[in-house]
Automatic annotation (TrEMBL):
Tree of life domain: Bacteria
Keywords: Glycosidase, Hydrolase, Signal
CDD domains, alphabetized: GH31_N
Provenance organism: Streptomyces sioyaensis
Entry annotated with the keyword Hydrolase: yes
Family statement drawn from the similarity comment of this UniProt entry: Belongs to the glycosyl hydrolase 31 family.
Any one Pfam family match given in the protein's UniProt record, by short name: NPCBM
Signal peptide: 1-31
Disordered, as annotated region: 888-908
Name of this chain's protein: DUF5110 domain-containing protein
Length: 1018
């Protein structure tokens, strides 16, 4: 073996044959007008120049450049002339190249570092990569090929090889691309199947990744074989070999840039709207944004920043005063850079700290978009001491170092939630650490979809709500109760988890791996992690598994929990993975959320803004003890760039506990190491330790802590502990007086246990069927089932609790439920006569019992719906209560045609010259839900577009019963004759009357259900 030391350009091989293989006769042209594809031929020459190697194949030349021992660049110039359109835009300067060596093995040249060997077969030229131990990484099945517009690499696909990456791929990405074709390029398609913020990088479970160094669109077909193409007549790719996907992402981001570290306000929810002459909202001024900002503290809701010119053609005025006013409300000023960034310097000096880019001036993405992201980011930093912070709708490789990637102008719906779930976790596989979309979109949506969308997006690092485009504003306090309270609950949880999320953000700047992760990243050996079994869930950090509800339902099926013990965040119930949870009770206020046993989660309790923190604020640790685990908290000033000069600190917490069952739990809190402005030199600590059983004693730094008798005593004390068996299956709460952060200390729970208690499996479980309905004003039976664990449940009591105004029956008692047995209960619940049927109601079933020598509590929360008494006889649809009502413009009208934005402002219902006294006037898209309670045989009506529309509009009508479509009309226009409706209902309990737009215009879609009547039993 020879090394190339001192060798500038040694040609070590003679001509071996034909310059290249031509895939078609000379001079032929393909049917599409393109030149025929060609494949590189035999090696005709070889030269070594340090870590750079040249391989000639006739006119074509390949060049191999090693960057690190596991990263190299492979280029091919079909005409022998190399080019680099990306220049210095994407790839950052790297360190000194590694030591390399080469040898001629007869049939191939082997180009090696200490970690990998790239084998270049001679006849024809074909590449293969192996590790130092000889194991195969990847292998070309044929040489690089090209035509006049495209270059392609063809790789063998392993039997179980999986593929991820390609940037933000809407509706996919956290599951494997195997068997699919993935497009990489800007398409301005924001919905399912679109690919904004594409990245020409993919990684393989075989232990490698590939970055195509280009601005050209790419197509990756992960078939057998794998073909990856770029729309350019040059080949330029970097390869990364690593033991894991995380390592490969780290190498890729070392080359193209680590993700930036957002300021703390960038991890809080933001608000966006146009406030200067808003065409959708009437005459307003920029300072009016402060009135909207006031709604957040008035409703006790967090908000970190506001874009105040969010809308096309929307400028601004009084910028400095607006910034000052937002600052007084603990918010930062942002602007939509619709027309470029020429004014950015002055805007930043006036207070702007967030720049949202837009396709209106970014153009086709690629270089222009990447430059816009970098320039806006740098403009904030050049004119303030703040960190650059941008939002980009279309970007490219390298944009992770300057912005949040935003998935586009989307519409709120259940489908929107469903396909967004895999989008953001999947983007992490391409080094995009901060990806997100508007809460409930900018169009459409409903109070329910807003709540469901906000719940899970609270576990993304970045989130924003956008107004001004939908029919009504979308701040989280607009929908009233119970929606505002639910939104408050999750936004405050997001605030309290800021130290957890910020620590993962800091980790991303070191490793390239973002906080939001697909299961396949953390559990690469799990055969289900990269499949549809885990498509609609993700990990937030390593410790939280989030399984959003993406249908209009109070239950969630198909929650896949990988290996380990998982704890229900709300109830404390434990699950042993791998397992799939079906029928999970998820009332509207409950996001299915699980915590990995072993977690130690840092929290800032009781804040609405990160600015609420003071020098004496406590740091809380939420601990789920099992075995040995740790977490390293990262802290800095949260706003400036001082952390880049070393201004930061870390504090490690280590937990030692039994793997299962009883034993001591020890929590070692390390010293806070490092310095930054505002660092706490002392602080009190809070601990919530999920043990499932009370410890005998608690010691702090070797001395006993006092056990406090009640929650009230605990709140009043400076220091002490208490055990609450009713809190999430049994929690130990501990608080300390202020302690110096410069010295480590230990907290020990003597005779405690791992999660699940001293007797694993002993806790009982209570469950209820989903979809239970309660008749207004009448006692209604609700069902529950109590299942004892591995020990008998004794002295059992079952109670219901419901919101104010609802009435529950007396508790049910049982002396004993045998181990493993299930006791079915029927209790009664009465809804107020004036209960709103559209609003969800959460009821709690609580079981108190003794098992395994201790009093225990099991809690189950479930949703019920208040429904009116079922109709009797023939009943006009317009006289019935609507359980829910969605309408395309303004409210649906009773006994009138669809009017404007107000109620009862429509005209008489008229179809084909006939006026109807009764009926419903709607506007597509419209969805009205009725409770028929199984008593109605049919529904009748005449349907069509109201005469007031004349000859335009286009809609279809449909009748649904209990989730099944029973009837659909043909497409109807304003010129169509009315269609009679007579649909048997078959004893359905719920009926929906829908009007759907069919031409995408939603103009003139005034659909009438004229004379609509239900025919029911008396």
């Amino acid at each position: 073996m020879r090394t190339p030391t001192g060798l500038r350009a040694a040609v070590v091989a003679a001509l071996l044959g034909l310059a290249m293989t031509v895939a078609g006769p000379a001079g032929s042209v393909r049917a599409d007008g393109r030149a025929p594809a060609q494949t590189v031929g035999d090696i005709t020459g070889f030269a070594a120049d340090g870590p750079v190697y040249h391989l000639h194949a006739g006119r074509a030349e390949a060049r191999v450049s090693f960057v690190t021992p596991r990263t190299f660049r492979l280029e091919l110039a079909p005409d022998g002339t190399f080019s680099d359109p990306t220049g210095k835009d994407i790839v950052l300067p790297q360190g000194a190249p590694p030591a390399t060596r080469w040898r001629d093995t007869g049939d191939a040249y082997e180009l090696s570092t200490s970690q990998v060997t790239l084998k270049a077969f001679k006849a024809p030229l074909r590449f293969e990569l192996r590790r130092a131990d000889g194991s195969l990484v990847w292998s070309e099945t044929k040489g690089l090929s090209w035509d006049d517009k495209t270059t392609t690499q063809t790789l063998a696909r392993g039997a179980g090889e999986q593929f991820y990456g390609a940037g933000m791929q809407n509706g996919r990405g956290n599951t494997s691309h195997r068997g699919h074709t993935t497009e990489v390029g800007v398409d301005y398609h924001w919905d399912d199947g679109g690919h904004p913020n594409s990245v020409p990088f993919y990684l393989s479970s075989a232990g490698y990744g590939v970055f195509r160094n280009t601005y050209a669109p790419n197509t990756y077909a992960f078939q057998d074989p794998v073909t990856t193409s770029a729309q350019e007549r040059r080949f330029d790719a970097y390869y990364f070999a690593g033991p894991s996907a995380k390592d490969v992402i780290g190498q890729y981001t070392a080359l193209t840039g680590k993700p930036f570290l957002p300021p703390l306000y960038g991890l809080e929810i933001g608000d966006s709207d146009c406030y200067l002459h808003n065409a959708n909202r009437g005459e307003r001024h920029t300072l009016d944004a402060l009135k909207v900002a006031d709604g957040y503290p008035q409703n006790d809701l967090p908000n970190g920043w506001m874009l105040v010119n969010d809308g096309y053609g929307c400028g601004y005025e009084h910028l400095a005063e607006t910034s000052q006013g937002l600052g007084e409300r603990k918010m930062k000023l942002g602007l939509w850079t619709e027309d470029g960034i020429a004014k950015l310097a002055d805007q930043v000096k006036a207070g702007q700290r967030i720049a949202k880019l837009d396709v209106a001036w970014v153009g086709d993405g690629y270089k222009f978009a990447l430059d816009g992201c970098k320039d806006a980011y740098r403009g904030i930093e050049d004119n303030s001491d703040a960190r650059g912070f941008t939002w980009a709708p279309e970007s490219w490789s390298g944009a992770q170092r300057c912005g949040v990637q935003w998935s586009g102008d989307q519409s709120g719906s259940w489908d929107y939630i469903r396909w967004q779930i895999p989008t953001y976790a999947g983007a992490t596989m391409s080094g995009l650490a901060y990806t997100t979309g508007d809460v409930d979109g900018i169009f459409g949506g409903s109070p329910k979809t807003y709540v469901r969308d906000l719940q899970w997006k609270s576990f993304l690092p970045a989130m924003m709500t956008m107004d001004g485009w939908a029919a009504s504003d979308k701040q989280p306090y607009r929908q009233g109760e119970p929606y505002t309270s639910i939104n408050r609950r999750y936004l405050k949880l997001k605030e309290s988890l800021l130290p957890y999320m910020y620590s993962y953000a800091a980790e991303a700047t070191r490793t390239g791996v973002g906080p939001v992760r697909p299961l396949a990243l953390e559990y690469p050996g799990d055969p289900k992690a990269g499949t549809d079994a885990a498509k609609y869930e993700f990990l937030s950090g390593q410790d939280f598994l989030v399984a959003p509800v993406y249908r209009d339902s109070d239950t969630r099926d198909g929650i896949y929990l990988p290996k380990g013990t998982w704890v229900d965040y709300w109830s404390g119930r434990t699950y042993r993975g791998p397992t799939t949870v079906n029928g999970y009770s998820a009332p509207l206020d409950t996001l299915p959320l699980f915590v990995k046993a072993g977690a130690a989660v840092p929290m800032w309790p009781g804040i609405r803004s990160y600015q609420d923190r003071t020098a004496h604020s406590p740091l809380a640790w939420d601990v789920y003890p099992q075995g040995r685990s740790s977490f390293t908290l990262y802290e800095d000033d949260g706003v400036t760039r001082a952390h880049r000069r070393g201004g930061s600190a870390t504090q490690q917490v280590r937990v030692a506990a039994p793997r299962s069952g009883g034993g001591d739990v020890r929590i070692d809190v390390g010293a806070l190491r490092g310095e930054f402005h505002g660092k706490q030199t002392a602080r009190p600590y809070r601990f919530t330790v999920h043990t499932g059983d009370a410890p005998r004693a608690v010691e702090l730094a070797g001395r006993p802590l006092k056990r406090l008798p009640s929650a009230r005593a605990f709140r009043a004390a400076d220091e002490g502990w208490r055990y609450d068996p009713a809190d999430r299956a049994g929690v130990v709460q501990v608080k300390t007086a202020s302690r110096t952060t410069g010295r480590a200390f230990a907290l020990t729970l003597k005779g405690a246990s791992a999660v699940g208690g001293r007797t694993p499996g002993a806790p009982a479980v209570v469950a209820t069927p989903g979809g239970q309905e309660v008749t207004k004003g009448a006692p209604t039976a609700v069902r529950a089932a109590v299942t004892a664990g591995t020990r008998d449940a004794q002295d059992v009591s079952v109670t219901l609790s419901a919101p104010r105004g609802w009435t529950t029956s007396a508790p049910v008692h049982h002396r004993r439920i045998a181990a493993g047995a299930t006791q079915h209960e029927t209790l009664t619940l009465t809804a107020p006569r004036d209960a709103a049927g559209a609003d969800p109601v959460t009821v709690t079933a609580t079981v108190r019992y003794r098992a395994a020598g201790a009093w225990r509590t099991a809690v189950h929360r479930f949703e019920v719906r208040a429904v009116p008494p079922a109709p009797a006889g023939d009943t006009w649809a317009s006289d019935l209560e609507w359980l829910s009502a969605a309408n395309g413009y303004g409210p649906a009208e009773r006994d009138r045609s669809n009017g404007e934005s107000g109620a009862t402002d429509g005209a008489p219902l008229t179809l084909a010259g006939k006026t109807y006294a009764k009926g419903i006037g709607a506007h597509a898209d419209s969805d009205l839900e009725f409770f028929t309670g199984g008593r109605c045989m049919s529904v009748t009506a005449d349907v069509g577009i109201d005469d007031e529309i004349a000859d335009y509009g286009e809609v279809a009508f449909s009748v649904e019963a209990d989730g099944k479509v029973l009837w659909t009309s043909p497409k109807l226009t304003g010129a169509s004759a009315p269609v009679p409706v007579d649909v048997p209902l078959g004893g359905a309990r719920h009926v929906r009357l829908k009007v759907t737009d069919t031409d995408g215009k939603k103009s003139g879609d005034h659909g009438d259900w004229a004379g609509a009547r239900f025919h029911c039993a008396r």
